[in-house]
């Protein structure tokens, strides 16, 4: 068996990093586009549609491309836990918070908390390396996120009416951090694609059960064409493509460094919101975004 040299490994990591940046582009755009969905359907229905359809597409890809699409029974319970935490729990809280607050709040609350908790847990419990540059990168990214969020608050003129929505979004961030930590052993053992497909599918089954009572009340014939276009986008890119790239990142470089890329999501979320919802970034938000970029570079700088 050929052992990859340093250049091959660098190219491999480069592809993973590029895939994670692209994931953040997709996920950043998912905040304003998901907001567009919940303007027409209940949040539970929006979550079930996005991830239910996305999980079916991923399962179809898995069974077509994988030599062993069905994992061993002994990992079934762990797949279900990751699906319930990272898909069902995260999206129930995320879409609920998104309904009562602006998309900028969802982008910042989730991306501020998840990378910090995930990186800390990875270093404390999973044996991921503790380096000064990683700790400094987390601190710089968090400082940038605080500055960015302060710019959002100042631009919005306060936080009135956002308390419960922000609490739900913080709970979503905790779910995402936990699922990122729990999913790495699964990705290593059965592969990124099977782990992503089965966790999405199992979590989506629970989402469908939660939303079943509200599906009948949706005026399906009155939904706009924009709704269906946005739904197709969030299913294909922020869900299917991004989730595969995300799981591959966790498998290759670890949960902490991978989750640190989430600090980039609010930058892309703000840009997308400016295009789709008419929001405009402030100089304070730009400064915070620049700090977040520096922090991600420090966290992933070679040791």
**What's the tally of helices?**
11
Shape: globular
The overall pLDDT average reads 82
Strand content: under 5%
- The count of DSSP E runs of length 2 or more, i.e. the number of strands, is 0
List low-pLDDT spans. Answer: 1-5
Instruction: Determine the N-to-C terminus distance.
Output: 27 Å
Radius of gyration computed on alpha carbons:
19 Å
Helix/strand class: mainly alpha
The SSE order reads HHHHHHHHHHH
Helical residue percent band: over 70%
Give a quick account of the main beta sheet: strands, pairing sense, barrel closure: none
Describe the protein in words.
With 303 residues, the chain is mainly alpha-helical. The protein is 81% helix and 0% strand. The protein has helices at residues 6-38, 43-65, 76-100, 103-125, 132-156, 163-190, 192-215, 225-253, 255-260, 265-276, 283-299. Helix 1 (6-38) runs antiparallel to helix 4. The chain starts with 5 loop residues before the first helix and ends with a helix.
Would you summarize the structure shown here?
The chain has 303 residues and is an all-alpha fold.
Overview features:
303 residues, 11 helices, 81% helix
Provide the fold topology.
Elements lengths: L5 H33 L4 H23 L10 H25 L2 H23 L6 H25 L6 H28 L1 H24 L9 H29 L1 H6 L4 H12 L6 H17 L4
Helix pairs in contact: 1-4, 1-8, 1-10, 2-3, 2-7, 2-8, 3-6, 3-7, 4-5, 4-6, 4-10, 5-11, 6-7, 6-8, 7-8
């Amino acid at each position: 068996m050929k052992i990859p040299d340093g250049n091959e490994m660098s190219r491999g990591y480069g592809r993973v990093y590029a895939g994670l940046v692209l994931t953040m582009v997709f996920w950043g755009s998912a905040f304003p586009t998901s907001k567009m969905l919940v303007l027409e359907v209940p949040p539970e229905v929006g979550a079930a549609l996005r991830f239910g359809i996305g999980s079916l597409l991923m399962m179809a890809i898995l069974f077509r491309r994988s030599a062993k699409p069905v994992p061993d029974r002994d990992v079934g319970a762990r797949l279900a836990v990751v699906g319930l935490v990272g898909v069902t729990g995260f999206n129930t809280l995320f879409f609920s918070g998104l309904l009562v607050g602006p998309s900028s709040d969802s982008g910042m609350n989730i991306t501020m908390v998840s990378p910090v908790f995930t990186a800390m847990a990875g270093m404390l419990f999973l044996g991921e390396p503790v380096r000064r540059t990683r700790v400094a990168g987390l601190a710089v990214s968090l400082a940038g996120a605080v500055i960015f969020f302060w710019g959002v608050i100042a631009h919005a003129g306060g936080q009135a009416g956002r308390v419960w929505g922000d609490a739900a979004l913080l709970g979503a961030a905790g779910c995402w951090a936990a699922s990122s930590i729990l999913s790495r052993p699964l990705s290593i053992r059965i592969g990124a694609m099977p782990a992503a497909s089965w966790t999405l599918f199992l979590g989506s089954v629970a989402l469908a059960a939660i939303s079943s009572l509200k599906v009948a009340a949706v005026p399906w014939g009155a939904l706009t064409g924009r709704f269906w276009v946005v739904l197709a986008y969030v299913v294909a890119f922020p869900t299917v493509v991004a989730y595969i790239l995300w799981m591959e990142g966790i498998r290759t470089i670890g949960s902490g460094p991978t989750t640190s890329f989430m600090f980039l999501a609010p930058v892309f979320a703000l840009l997308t919101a400016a295009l789709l919802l008419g929001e405009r970034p402030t100089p304070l938000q730009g400064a915070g975004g620049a700090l977040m970029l520096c922090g991600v570079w420090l966290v992933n700088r070679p040791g």
